[in-house]
Structure formats: C-alpha cells, structure tokens
Amino acid sequence: MQIERLQGSIVAIVTPFKDNGEIDFQAFDDLVEFQISNGTDGIVVCGTTGETPTLSHDEDAQLIERCVKKVNGRVPVIAGTGSNSTTDCIKYSQKALDLGADALLVVSPYYNKPSRRGICKHYSQLAKNVKAPIILYNVPGRTGSTIEPSIALELAAHHENIIGIKEAGGDIGVFVELLANRPENFKVFSGDDFLSFSANCLGADGCISVVANVIPKEFHQLMKSSIEGDLTTARQLFYKYQNLMKLMFLESNPLPVKTALALMGKVSEVFRAPLCEMEDENREQLKIELKKLKLL
C-alpha cells in the first residue's frame, strides 16, 4: 500500500457499540463498507472519533485487525497509536503494524505537556524504533501541547518515515507555514473539516475527517475537486455542507457524528461514559440539518 501517495478524504471512523456497551463489530464492518463503496480514500481506526479513550488495549487491537481484514487492501488503514508515554506509544505502534495497519497516526503527547525538545524526542524515538509511515497529529485543544510547524518540519527533515501531519489547531496560517516550507513528499492533512477546502486551495493533501462518516461520497468529491482546482464544484459542495461540518462540533466529538449516524440508522446511539447522549435541543438542531440535506 503506497501510503505516501495518499490524498483526499480519509475518514476517522466511529466505533459503534451495542446496547450492552460491547463493540458492535457487524455495524463496524458495515460502516467500513459504506465508506469504501462511496469513494473514501483511507480509514483511520482508533482515533479520537473512535472513542479510543474508553477502549481497552485488547479492543483497540480487535478493531485494527477487523478493519484491516474488512478493507482487504482496498484503501490504506491508518491506526491511531498515540500516548503520553513514549514507551507505550512505541509498543502500541508495533502492535498495530503487526496487525496489518499501513501507517500510524500519532497524536502529540497529552496532559503532561512536554516542551519542544520533549516533543521532538518523543517522535524521534518512535521513528527510530518503528519502521513504518508516521503521521504527526497536532490538536492543542485536546492535548495541551503543540507541534509547531518548525517542529514538524524538523522531524520530517530528520526522519524519512515521518511522512505527514494532521493539523487540527484551527489556524489557517499554520497551513501556510507548513505548506510553504515542507520537504518533498511531506503530506499536510487538515484535521478540521471546515478548514479543509481552504487548506487544499493552499496545497494541502486532503482531510482526516469527521463529517466523512456521514457524507463519504460528497466529502470525497469536495476533497477531490478542491485538490484538483475545480473550484466551482468545490465551492458548491462546501457551501451545501458547511453547516453540517459546524454541527459536527456542536458538542464534543464524536457525540454529534455518532448521533447523526444513529439517526441515519447505521449505529446505535450508545456511548461509553463519560461520554453521553447530546442535549435534546442540540440533537434536534442536528436532526433538522440532516433532514434538510435529505440524509434521513
């Protein structure tokens, strides 16, 4: 699988649960097929959208293995293997590769808030110990630490298996700095659905997306047209779905996206504590938009 060529719409897939709280593997298989049959270019499993903070290590492994088997080489499978312990991150990453993942999405160490030097050391040790494509993941709003563009570019220059970054800091200026200075073949993916169109116009490679769970075909078309310079098509799609993109973050991800999928009949509306159902008024707002877009 040529992960280095990956671009477009990469879904950060949800983890469906049964009413008893166990993983619904049949629903998961169906979601994977829904994505691939609608043009999704890659799948991230065990990411934030997959509720991984509430999953056990065994469940992470089961989901990665299941995803690899179901995908069967049709698109790249990228496993989320981040940790605030470098030793654990290396261990989780090697396990994901043993299970067949094509690449790794590794979030910046969270909670312990390492310095610039600490972040560089973390990823350098990972890159040296795990011989696989690594995508950095910058999401300061969740981690409390930041992979500044200069850090990402330094790591890319020193480690050929650090092949890209998912940038979810919410600042279009960061994309400008990354894209203007990136080395050849270093991928820049938006981690923000709403900014992805603008980022692609600047030269980004697509989006690791939440809303693609709900509109895989349409989001794939948005990414493809914006990357290829068909701005008329891209604008039409962006304006049509921009409110849905905003609503995906009306409450903490993945509550809105999973609620939308439940309303569409694709998963049960079940979350693991401390996550819980959306507030009634927010759920109704989401339902109205789904109806407006003829998704229900």
Compact description:
The chain has 296 residues and is an alpha/beta fold. The protein contains twelve helices and eight strands.
Question: What do you see in this structure?
Answer:
The chain has 296 residues and is of the alpha/beta class. It has one domain: Alpha-Beta Barrel (TIM Barrel). It has 12 helices and 8 strands. It has an 8-stranded parallel beta sheet with strand order 7-6-5-4-3-2-1-8. It is globular. The model has no long low-confidence stretch (mean pLDDT 97). Homotetramer; dimer of dimers.
Number of strands: 8
Content of β-strand = 5-15%
Order of helices and strands: EHEHEHEHEHHEHEHEHHHH
Residue share in helices? 40-55%
Pfam families: DHDPS
Subunit structure: Homotetramer; dimer of dimers.
GO molecular function: 4-hydroxy-tetrahydrodipicolinate synthase activity
Binding site for pyruvate: 49, 208
SSE diagram, text form:
Layout: E1 8-12, H1 25-37, E2 42-45, H2 57-71, E3 77-80, H3 86-98, E4 103-107, H4 116-129, E5 134-138, H5 140-143, H6 149-158, E6 162-167, H7 172-181, E7 187-190, H8 193-202, E8 206-209, H9 216-228, H10 231-247, H11 255-263, H12 280-292
